[in-house]
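Why run this: before we spend reagent on co-expression, it is cheaper to look at a predicted model of the complex and decide which construct boundaries make sense. The entries below are exactly what would go into the expression plan.
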Amino acid sequence: MSKPDLHTPQISRLASILILFVLLAATWLVWSGLFKALLLFLGLVSSVLCLWLAIRMRFFDDYLFSLPVGRGYLRYLVWLTREVIKSSLDVTKVVLSPSLPISPRIARIRAGSDHPYDQVLFANSITLTPGTLSMDLDEGVITVHALTEQGMRDLLAGEMDRRITALRGK
Amino acid sequence: MDTVINIVSWLLMTSGGLFVLVGGIGALRMPNLYTRMHAASVTDSIGPILVIGGLILQAGMTLASIKLTAILVFLLLTGPTASNALASAAMLSGHKPELAQEISEDDAV
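The model came back. Tokens follow.
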């Protein structure tokens, strides 16, 4: 298995610093919504301060824009929202039934993608979906705790992993 | 048109509130830490989606909607991260989950 390349950026270091600056400045403008000279100046100072901290933290040494953001990503988010709604209803049913029919399970699941960002996306998607919870992520193997046997079976069917692996795919 | 938007937004906020309530009830009813976290994650995930969705409908096409969307995104990003940290801290401190059925190491996929 080849390690994913995190150190060869697809855009230059200067470009990613500039992109982050634009993002920070835009965020400040949206949040304040006021266009007075003093506030604009404070926004500029904050953005530059954040950039300086990010550079000091070696934020730009790794490939920054590594999430495969695109149409496939949006489709995944829509699918994930549907899963969250479905499993919320399942957990609600369990919580409200008088007998409290839980059957906790633990399993280790290997993520299909080698890329650490994809593995984090997978682990966080598992946790975001009620009824399943990732407890540990080590070398691409995620330890998952599930509230019910059915929930674990749904996860082991592997559709979420397939969709995440396909995001970067080809 | 306003009435329709209001009704949809009330429905979203009320159902969101109900899910938050269910999360609270679940956190009380569940027997141990990990299962409680499952119940609480109903409050974490679908609760804010519905409540903030309803609020966005109330705010309409304004700056407030953009801020609400950002709040939702941050909640959905930080919630699971905090849960992961909590679960792995519990594991590290030796808090063993009670399982309905032991699963051996060989079940690793």
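Residues 104-109 of chain B have pLDDT under 50 and may be disordered. The radius of gyration of chain B is 18 Å. Bring this page to Monday's planning discussion.
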